[in-house]
């Protein structure tokens, strides 16, 4: 495992409780025992994790074989499907093993969004507050009047209004004015990364310590934040730890009977359209099923749903080179994909999402 971590660190430095519902999977097979939709949660202190078989779920096993081959050919390292919280598929490819860690890239933004929600819930901050309340005046190169319009919520929604050309830079001299906060959506790592400083200053503690105590340890995740010059603060973990976080999101912030994020107001805001400029974006989460969407490194507005082959209620954590965390509430699904880029390097969305979901929909009988 240490060998893999050293390789990953070098690589990244270079590239920068339960839910209600009575659905069953036996509607067309009345002789089979129905599988309830109540969510299962694995222990936070052991590696034990209950499973379901694709046969029990009446999924298409032939397509499952095709899916597995496709994933391996597309440079996948880890792939997990959870149904009702239980593991249906857990596959590792391309010299990668279950206890190896891999980087989340920008999919890890969702961890920070959730942590901001915890900090607000505990009274350390309010996302309506000016960012300068926590970073001090002059954290940008803007005038004080321009800077004072930027709130924590603007950082969460990519609407700070600052120039994103110096994409990962967090120094004041590369945080330059383009528009008043709230009037322009642009995917920008700099203001996002500074959210972790906001949390640290608001809580008067180290960001990693707050994250570990309030989120990571409470749901049994492993992993660590690695600060790199190229990509700022990036999270690494095993695939199962990403699946744990996805399960937490599926259950709206509660792990089994432990409410990690007690109030639902922040959770609902985080996972719904956060502004009108790009309705396919929440608080650092990507949202399917909206009428239009925007993408990183572009001001173009595209018509239609983000991933046309996926369920409309899909919410996604998307990271560079096809790091994927998909959550589908209507189907009680969590799906994880980690690895190298499937086709070509990308920031978040790629054609891989569409192709993968076409296979998944056929495999699970969703189309």
Automatic annotation (TrEMBL):
InterPro entries: Beta-lactam-related, Beta-lactam/transpept-like, Diverse_Enzym_Activities. Pfam families: Beta-lactamase. This is Serine hydrolase. Residues 78-337 form the Beta-lactamase-related domain. The keyword Nucleus does not apply. It comes from Croceivirga radicis. Keywords: Hydrolase, Signal. It comes from the Bacteria. GO terms for molecular function: hydrolase activity.
């Amino acid at each position: 495992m240490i060998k893999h971590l050293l390789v990953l660190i070098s690589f990244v430095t270079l590239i920068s409780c339960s839910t209600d519902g009575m659905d069953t999977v036996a509607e067309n097979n009345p002789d089979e025992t129905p599988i309830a939709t109540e969510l299962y949660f694995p222990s936070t202190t052991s590696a034990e994790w209950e499973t379901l078989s694709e046969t029990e779920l009446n999924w298409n096993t032939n397509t499952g074989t095709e899916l597995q081959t496709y994933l391996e050919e597309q440079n996948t390292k880890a792939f997990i499907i959870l149904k009702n919280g239980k593991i249906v598929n857990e596959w590792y490819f391309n010299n990668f093993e279950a206890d190896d860690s891999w980087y989340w890239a920008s999919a890890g933004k969702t961890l920070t969004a959730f942590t901001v929600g915890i900090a607000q819930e505990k009274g350390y901050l309010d996302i309506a507050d000016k960012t300068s309340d926590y970073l001090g005046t002059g954290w940008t190169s803007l005038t004080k009047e321009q800077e004072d319009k930027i709130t924590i919520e603007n950082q969460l929604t990519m609407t700070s209004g600052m120039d994103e050309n110096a994409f990962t830079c967090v120094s004041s001299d590369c945080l330059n004015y383009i528009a008043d906060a709230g009037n322009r959506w642009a995917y920008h790592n700099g203001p996002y990364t500074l959210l972790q400083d906001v949390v640290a200053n608001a809580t008067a503690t180290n960001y990693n310590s707050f994250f570990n105590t309030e989120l990571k340890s409470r749901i049994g995740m492993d992993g660590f934040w690695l600060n790199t010059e190229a990509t700022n603060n990036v999270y690494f973990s095993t695939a199962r730890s990403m699946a744990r976080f996805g399960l937490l999101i599926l259950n709206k912030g509660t792990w089994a009977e432990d409410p990690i994020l007690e109030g639902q107001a922040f959770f609902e805001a985080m996972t719904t359209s956060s502004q009108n400029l790009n309705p396919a974006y929440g608080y650092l989460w990507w949202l399917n099923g909206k009428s239009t969407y925007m993408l990183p490194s572009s001001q173009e507005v595209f018509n239609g749903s983000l991933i046309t082959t996926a369920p409309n209620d899909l919410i996604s954590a998307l990271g560079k080179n096809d790091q994927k965390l998909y959550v589908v509430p209507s189907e009680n699904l969590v799906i994880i994909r980690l690895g190298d880029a499937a086709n070509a390097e990308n920031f978040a969305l790629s054609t891989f999402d569409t192709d993968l979901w076409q296979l998944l929909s056929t495999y699970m009988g969703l189309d």
